[in-house]
Amino acid sequence: MPSPSKVLASALAVLVLAGCAQRASGFTDGRLDVVTAFYPLQYLAERIGGPQADVVNLTKPGAEPHDVELNPRQVGQVADAGLAIYLTGFQPAVDQAIDLEAADRALDVSGVVQMLSAEGHEHEPGGEEEEHEHGALDPHVWLDPVRYATIGDALADRLATIDPAHASDYASRAEAVHAELDALDMEYAATLKTCERREIVTSHEAFHYLADRYALTEVGITGISPEAEPSPQRLAHVAEEARATATTTIFFETLVSPKVAETIAREVGARTAVLDPLEGVSEPGADYFSVMRANLTALTTALGCTS
Prior knowledge:
- By secondary structure, the chain is an alpha/beta fold.
- It has ten helices and nine strands.
- Strands 1, 2, 3, 4 and 5 form a five-stranded mixed β-sheet that branches. It has a four-stranded parallel β-sheet with strand order 7-6-8-9, sandwiched between helices.
- β2 (31-36), α2 (39-49) and β3 form a beta-alpha-beta unit.
- The longest helix has 25 residues, at 167-191.
- It is globular.
């Protein structure tokens, strides 16, 4: 008869092997382990994954996601995930972790929608803006409800492939999210159809997709990255554009200092207001839809819209 110590050792070995198998499968206690790169992807994963998914976001609430760095624990979460959802080129540290640890279990959302080029964000000569550090594509795709809905549909399909037992659950939740996004799109289109102005001056060029969808023109103080320093020439150009278009509002965002926007606003006699790029949500109770509707209210006021 085996000794108690040998029985215990055998039991521990079985538990370790079972744990490794569970991690390798990407499920914990029957729930799919999902890792998301930043808030808009987390929101979709939680809405569509529902109780069948355990979602972890790699970007902490209130953090600026462009330059996020991952600690060893987070890299381990990527390695153990059944699905990692990211947008290539937006967060280099996340790209690297997924390439090394989860390349065969990843959904790159830039591959499921038509992305817009970052080349349209060129600035005046002599500027200090970044050299398209995100590559050739503008990453801020979630600010277009139509493209965002397409990403949700693709996510549901991927979840169903990984966890076919709950395919109908993922599909029904994705359908509900898609319907909400269709309603949001119609609300934006109707509200922004007739406005006194169609130019929006923003602290950084995060709103290309929104502007493209609703026939607006974005004038960014800085380019794709919010941390870029605008040159004096760029500041003068933005001020000139703001005066020429009778801009009443210079928009800044929640996760970046408003100082440059306030400087432009003082120079042209405009006010400042928040236009949130939704890269993260830090206000209690806020979510994608509440922030998008707050943005619509801000745009309606700034542009003098009459629906």
